[in-house]
Amino acid sequence: MPEMRFVIAWPDGREETCYSPSLVIRDSSRKARSIRSVTFFIAAGRR
Prior knowledge:
Blueprint: E1 4-9, E2 15-20, H1 24-35, H2 38-46
Antiparallel strand pairs: 1-2
Helix pairs in contact: 1-2
């Protein structure tokens, strides 16, 4: 199964490297980028 690491930039300037055992994060971030909505991205993470 594919896996990936990605970096989250928090509002306070900190960055955190995270791990996903699949490419779901990549696919979700593509959707979020096309909409340019943080609210959408957060809601997608809760599903």
